[in-house]
């Protein structure tokens, strides 16, 4: 039996950063609703400010750094993709449409043939 390892946050500092980011998000939501009487600018300002601090705090943690590295690697891999030309895209789209039409006709023919065999020949039902 093979066991897979699950990555966890190891250091206390990372746990504190992630907990702090979560508390800042919750605090932003609480501040948004508590500042309802102060006006929309105060509500949105408090929410956006606390969310921005939470995002900065998250990205300073090890999990945030791994997320940024994953994003960079994904972007690097996406740049390696050889995208088809317009002509190739149109040709492949035409092939797909043609295949769909052929399969639709095949399935319709199969359905009608089975209907004829079952209802007319075997059961003898005439419509």
TrEMBL record:
Database matches in Pfam families: SecE
InterPro entries found in the cross-reference section: SecE_bac, SecE_sf, Translocase_SecE/Sec61-g
Keyword terms, alphabetized: Cell membrane, Membrane, Protein transport, Translocation, Transmembrane, Transmembrane helix, Transport
GO terms (BP aspect): intracellular protein transmembrane transport; protein secretion; protein targeting; protein transport by the Sec complex
Transmembrane stretches, start-end: 18-35, 41-60, 89-109
GO-annotated cellular components: plasma membrane
GO molecular function annotation: protein transmembrane transporter activity
UniProt subcellular location: Membrane
Keyword set includes Flavoprotein: no
Subunit text: Component of the Sec protein translocase complex. Heterotrimer consisting of SecY, SecE and SecG subunits. The heterotrimers can form oligomers, although 1 heterotrimer is thought to be able to translocate proteins. Interacts with the ribosome. Interacts with SecDF, and other proteins may be involved. Interacts with SecA.
Role description: Essential subunit of the Sec protein translocation channel SecYEG. Clamps together the 2 halves of SecY. May contact the channel plug during translocation.
PANTHER family noted in UniProt: PROTEIN TRANSLOCASE SUBUNIT SECE (PTHR33910)
Family to which this protein belongs: Belongs to the SecE/SEC61-gamma family.
Record protein name field: Protein translocase subunit SecE
Organism: Inhella crocodyli
